[in-house]
């Protein structure tokens, strides 16, 4: 089981192997590829720092507990019709994205995110909506 916060559910669909450090990337790739291979993997939706935040490099300015990040979590969970404390398989997240999120929603949900400019999160949502699922990370 992985513990994930709201906005990271969308970060995972846009993930292409980029991140804050080698350790962060290695951990996120492990989570991503596990969900890709085993979509029945259970997730516990948590408030605040999760299994991805756990590998955020201590040498960089930490934003994991900033108010606007918590607000992003809340907005994403509301959009997906999910709530903190729920335990669900990854495939349910994909199903909720398919029904409740369009690529353009990234602009409003993630307006302050540095990674948004790459366009990969919109692409990832489109992948889920068209049934392609999570991409293979080489
Ligand atoms: S734009 Fe940023 S916060 Fe939003 S899904 Fe992408 S990486 Fe995550």
Topology:
Elements: E1 2-5, H1 6-14, H2 22-37, E2 42-46, H3 67-80, E3 87-89, H4 90-100, H5 105-109, H6 120-129
Parallel strand pairs: 1-2
Antiparallel strand pairs: 2-3
Helix pairs in contact: 1-3, 1-6
The protein binds iron/sulfur cluster.
Iron/sulfur cluster is lined by residues 7, 10-11, 14, 106, 110, 113, 115-116, 121.
Structural overview:
There is one protein chain. With 138 residues, the protein is mainly alpha-helical. It has one domain (2-129). The protein has helices at 6-14, 22-37, 67-80, 90-100, 105-109, 120-129, and strands at 2-5, 42-46, 87-89. Strands 1-2-3 form a 3-stranded mixed sheet. It is globular, with a radius of gyration of 14 Å. The protein starts with a strand and ends in a 9-residue tail after the last helix. The relative contact order is 0.23. It binds iron/sulfur cluster (SF4). Iron/sulfur cluster (SF4) binds next to helix 1.
- The coarse overall form would be globular
What small molecules does the structure contain? iron/sulfur cluster
Average pLDDT? 97
Tell me the number of strands: 3
Q: What is the count of DSSP helices, taking H or I runs of 4+ residues? A: 6
List keywords for this structure.
6 helices, single chain, binds iron/sulfur cluster, 138 residues, mainly alpha
Task: Write a brief structural summary.
This protein is mainly alpha-helical and 138 residues long.
